[in-house]
From TrEMBL, chain A:
This is Transcriptional regulator. It comes from Paractinoplanes lichenicola.
UniProtKB/TrEMBL annotation, chain B:
Signal peptide: none annotated. PANTHER family: PHOSPHOENOLPYRUVATE DIKINASE-RELATED, PYRUVATE, PHOSPHATE DIKINASE 1, CHLOROPLASTIC. Residues 1-39, 324-347 are annotated as: Disordered. It comes from Paractinoplanes lichenicola. It comes from the Bacteria. Residues 61-101, 114-223 form the Pyruvate phosphate dikinase AMP/ATP-binding domain. This is Pyruvate, phosphate dikinase.
Length: 180, 507
């Protein structure tokens, strides 16, 4: 499993530091990987941002399919995705309610709901070892919000919603489900 | 085309004198002619059921907001399918001990309908949070159980948590004879606003689906036609609908919207809700209603909260110029949408085409106005020179770099709570979601979008800020007259001062 390739598949075009932070790997290591991917025609770089080529997307689809087959996790990930689909509208409702809030919305209650949702998404992350990385990132975003950086819920590039959105894309990519 | 079952009309089966229908214990006593129970048993389940009837006087805490609205419609003589309400106390009991009221299926049988709808309706509005079960044939008990249980879905719990609604309130349930928007060619469903909810323009506005049920309209799974298409397809239904909207406005002294179905050319109203307007539209409606004499100026000032005024101050598009580029006349958006809705060759006119410059309309998901050239992929948005509007079926994280590069975003699918909407708001970029008719947009075409009203127009269009909006200006002048202070201050302060004065000396 090429982690850098798969990270790019899930976050789209991004600069080196964002790819490294998302993958949880040192920048030097990630840059070396990206150059190898570019040599193989799987990634390109333009205007400072790295992105996958069509061949890179196909290569990732193959490696995630192989991963599911060799680990025998396909059933578990499929079931996790079904659980995710129940939680996803709830998360999007919550994000929208927070963004469109009026004076009647209590920020502490909003944080409580995010925390509760975060607890209920844990079984989804347990379906595949590499998905647990999302757990750490989601926890960290909630922690930042609780420390006062409320934009870390929905309104930054490292927000809880952005990480969740990437998890959504990861599940679709891993299971080979096209966005309809 | 007659329906196999007979649905009693308003002013017929259900307009019995109220006293006979409301025994002191409040128990079910349905009218005797159309809904005659087999054995004369009138009292069931200890007051759990109430017939939908103009004389039903139970408060909103008992029968819920939706049923309360239906009773108001019946009192106005408007057509509502016959039915009964299961009071919220029955739900509270179910939530406590899992027991459903006795006699549900007997009561449903008295409606004499081939099938029924079972809808939630709490005392406090919780839009879209609970279940509805349509077209129930046979026993309704499982459907009522499902609706009661939906009180505790995670989404509903979240909504109540955030809005401070007690978790033990419970919901009433409305059981009504099903009316079929998919019955025949003279059937359909829709949502109708008495005034344009995006702009406040004083004309009926909404969506209609020919030959489909109401759930297809609400779900967004089908692309709808503009409401005005009904005027040419079913003129009597249109006339009845417009008359109903006018009557309701006069009664409520406010804009409103209804869900409706028409079956074999006969109109039925299924739900009544107040408002539903964008902040800018709400200001215009308040000012217009005062001009029309339906409310006074004090009431107009009272109706707009400072936070709504702040939201209304977002710049808005004003479509003043003819389109800079002509649309492809051979392929108007409405025809495409009609085909996808399974209706052949509709004799309709595209109401959007009648509004100079408008190409499509969706839902405003992130406020503001943006002008740019259409980019159909995120890569194109990054590559193209100058401001671009990203137009996508829906968005994925792979579109994030395109969203970052674009001045605004339009999606064909998704609602106000979609990834695209959340991301656009986080980037403070105007967004329109759920827009149909986008096939007409070629890459590179210049468009302007309004993320409040959901309008998409050809070419570069002007936008106006709050200071130039005549309705906001007039409302604030009225506010100053009330507060007796016309010194230069921020708009919200001017409004707050007037509202403080009205609170201190109401009337």
């Amino acid at each position: 499993m090429n982690v850098v390739l798969h990270t790019l598949r899930c976050i789209g075009h991004a600069d080196l530091s964002r790819i490294a932070a998302t993958a949880g790997l040192p920048e030097a290591h990630v840059e070396s990987e990206l150059i190898d991917l570019a040599v193989d025609g799987l990634a390109t770089r333009s205007m400072g941002a790295w992105g996958l080529t069509a061949a890179g997307k196909a290569a990732d689809a193959k490696q995630t399919a192989d991963e599911l087959d060799t680990s025998g996790a396909r059933a578990a990930v499929t079931s996790a995705y079904e659980t995710f689909l129940v939680l996803n509208p709830e998360l999007l409702d919550l994000c929208s309610l927070w963004q469109l809030r009026d004076d009647t919305i209590d920020p502490a209650r909003v944080l409580d709901r995010f925390t509760d949702l975060n607890r209920r998404v844990q079984p989804v992350l347990a379906a595949l070892p590499r998905l647990t990385r999302y757990g750490g990132r989601l926890d960290a975003a909630l922690h930042r919000a609780r420390a006062g950086a409320m934009e870390e819920l929905t309104d930054s590039m490292t927000s809880y919603h952005v990480i969740w959105f990437q998890l959504h894309e990861d599940l679709l990519a891993t299971l080979g489900i096209p966005r309809t | 085309m007659t329906s196999p079952h007979s649905v009693p009309g308003p002013g017929h089966a259900l307009s019995q004198p109220g006293g006979a229908l409301s025994p002191p214990d409040g128990a079910l006593s349905l009218p005797s002619d159309a809904l005659s129970p087999p054995s004369g048993a009138h009292s069931l389940s200890g007051g759990a059921f109430f017939p939908l009837d103009p004389a039903l006087g139970e408060p909103v805490e008992v029968i819920g907001g939706k049923a309360h609205g239906l009773v108001r419609l019946l009192r106005l003589g408007l057509p509502v399918p016959p039915g009964f309400v299961i009071g919220a106390s029955a739900c509270r009991r179910f939530l406590r001990d899992g027991r459903l009221p006795h006699g549900l299926d007997v009561a449903a049988g008295w409606l004499g309908a081939e099938s029924v709808s079972v809808r939630s309706g709490a005392a406090v509005s919780m839009p879209g949070m609970m279940n509805t079960v349509l077209d129930v044939r046979g026993p309704i008990t499982p459907a009522v159980r499902e609706v009661f249980e939906s009180w505790n879905t995670p989404r509903a719990v979240t909504y109540r948590e955030l809005h401070g609604i007690p978790h033990d309130l419970g919901t009433a349930v409305i059981v009504q004879a099903m009316v079929h928007g998919d019955r025949d060619e003279q059937s359909g469903s829709g949502v109708a606003f008495s005034r344009d909810p995006g702009t406040g323009d004083p004309h009926p506005y909404g969506d209609v689906l020919f030959g489909r049920r109401g759930d297809a309209v609400v779900s967004g799974e089908c692309n709808t036609l503009p409401l005005a298409a009904l005027a040419e397809r079913e003129p009597p239904v249109w006339s009845a609908l417009v008359a109903a909207l006018n009557l309701i406005e006069q009664h409520y002294r406010d804009a409103c919207h209804v869900e409706f179905t028409y079956e074999s050319a006969r109109l039925w109203l299924l739900q009544l809700r107040p408002g539903g307007l964008t902040p800018r539209a709400a200001v215009r409606v308040a000012v217009d209603l005062a001009d029309e004499g339906l409310i006074d100026r004090r009431e107009a000032v009272r109706r707009i909260s400072p936070s709504r005024l702040r939201a209304a101050a977002t710049p808005r598009m004003v479509v003043t110029s003819p389109p800079l580029r002509k649309r492809h006349a051979a392929n108007p958006p409405t025809r495409e949408r009609a085909a996808s809705a399974g209706v052949a060759d509709p004799p309709v006119r595209n109401t959007l085409a009648d509004t100079a410059g408008l190409v499509a309309r969706g839902r405003g998901a992130s406020p503001g106005v943006a002008t740019g050239r259409v980019a159909l992929t995120a890569d194109a948005a990054v590559r193209m020179q100058g401001p671009v509007v990203l137009v996508r079926p829906e968005t994925s994280p792979l579109d994030m770099h395109g969203l970052a590069a674009a001045v605004g975003v339009v999606t064909a699918r998704g609602g106000l709570a979609s990834h695209a909407a959340v991301v656009a708001r986080s980037l403070r970029k105007p967004a329109v979601v759920g827009a149909s008719g986008l096939d007409a947009l070629a890459e590179g075409t210049e468009i302007t979008i309004d993320g409040s009203s959901g309008e998409i127009a050809w070419g570069a269009q002007a936008s106006i800020a709050a200071g130039d909006d005549p309705h906001i200006g007039r409302l604030l002048a009225w506010a100053d007259a009330i507060s007796g202070d016309d010194s230069p201050r921020p708009a919200e302060e001017r409004l707050s001062a007037a509202q403080d004065r009205l609170l201190a000396a109401p009337g």
